[in-house]
Request: fold
Amino acid sequence: MNKSKLIETVAIKVGIPVKESEAVINTFFAVLQKAMAEDERTEIRGFGTFKAKIYRAYIGRNPKNGMCIPVKSKRLPTFKASKTLKKLIDHDS
Reply:
């Protein structure tokens, strides 16, 4: 599912115009992005947790020539699914 399909689905399920649904979805993502940029953890019960994780710098290796190269530290977004979501997805068990 892509963003436009999500907007359309929410509009249908809630019974609101697509423009209102789009505003809600865009606001949700903007708030989530801002929270992660400010190192805040966002937990949605029954779904999962979003946060930015800090990765330390390290010395990597170029696979083509084997030379060592420094890799800078970085912050990347992460998502950890809740137990409820994991159970829902793994419906075979």
In short: The chain has a mean pLDDT of 94. The chain has three helices and five strands. The first strand starts at residue 42 and ends at 44.
